[in-house]
TrEMBL record:
Keyword annotations from UniProtKB, A to Z: Methyltransferase, S-adenosyl-L-methionine, Transferase
Organism: Streptomyces chisholmiae
Enzyme class of the recorded protein, top EC level: transferase
Domain of life (superkingdom): Bacteria
Gene3D superfamilies named among the record's database cross-references: Vaccinia Virus protein VP39
Methyltransferase type domain residues: 47-146
Keyword DNA-binding (UniProt): no
Coiled-coil residues: none
Name this protein carries in UniProt: Class I SAM-dependent methyltransferase
Keyword Repeat: no
GO biological process: methylation
GO molecular function terms attached to this record: methyltransferase activity
EC number: 2.1.-.-
Length: 255
């Protein structure tokens, strides 16, 4: 393959070294999945709304041989990657991948109820937190668990942070406000993890480093300059803007 033929799928490139599309370590992901699947005897149905590369369902299926999962996302590249990884892990027969809108899927009652619903770093797929919670609850079985990953303000957002994120102060609340909104939606928090600064840094270094490295490795590619500029802009916005200001919490909530 020549450099001009190398595919440019930015989401796959930026997550090549950090497949979890959120600032969470592998240990945190494993612990959260254990909590979500606790006390579940027999077959378990999982649904990931906005699954990307289906990193969460793949880990759950590998650890729980009686589980089945559905992943929904609009990105065909991410789903193709997920299908290949499912085949490699030997779980392809238990994973259904749907190319489509997560909110529309959640609104369709014919899909039935799921024991575990996941939406980690994907509230944008619903247009915000409130709609995400409503959509997830609609597909959650009685007594089921929702794994929700969402940003919050660690401290008062600075002008630099808001500029880097293209955000407004009202886009997120603090951690207490995030939990309160979940409770207002009829959900009870039973576990949670706040991403550490080390987890954030690892995620951001992987994101920017993978993209910058791809640009260096493919200097003749038509997208090389764009990739390098995107990596540099993202890195500057993180280091000079929202680092230590924007937080991320992953909550396990019972319906």
């Amino acid at each position: 393959m020549t450099t001009d033929e190398a595919p440019y799928q930015r989401h796959l490139i930026t997550h090549a070294e950090h497949p979890i599309a959120a600032p969470l370590s592998e240990e945190s992901v494993a612990a959260l999945l254990r909590r979500a699947l606790a006390d579940r005897a027999g077959p378990v149905r999982l649904l990931d709304l906005g699954c990307g590369q289906a990193a969460w369902p793949l880990r759950a299926l590998a650890a729980h041989p009686t589980a089945t999962a559905v992943g929904v996302d609009l990105d065909p590249g991410g789903l193709a990657h997920a299908a290949a990884e499912a085949a490699r892990l030997g779980v392809a027969d238990r994973l259904t991948l749907v190319t489509g809108d997560a909110a529309a899927f959640a609104a369709e009652a014919a899909h039935g109820a799921f024991d575990v619903v996941l939406s980690v770093g994907a509230t944008h797929a619903f247009g915000g937190l409130a709609a995400t919670l409503a959509g997830a609850v609609a597909r959650l079985a009685p007594g089921g668990r929702l794994v929700l990953g969402e940003c919050f303000w660690e401290r008062e957002p600075t002008p630099a942070a808001l500029t880097a994120l293209g955000a407004e102060p009202a886009d997120f609340t603090d951690l207490a406000g995030l939990v309160a909104r979940c409770v207002e939606a009829g959900l009870t928090p039973v576990h949670g993890r706040v991403s550490t600064l080390d987890e954030w840094d690892d995620y951001e270094w992987c994101w920017t480093g993978s993209l910058a490295g791809w640009a260096l490795d493919h200097p003749e590619h038509p997208k090389a300059a764009e990739a390098a500029a995107t990596a540099a802009e993202h890195r500057a916005g993180w280091l000079g803007g929202y680092r230590g200001v924007l937080g991320f919490a992953t909550l396990v909530l019972r319906g």
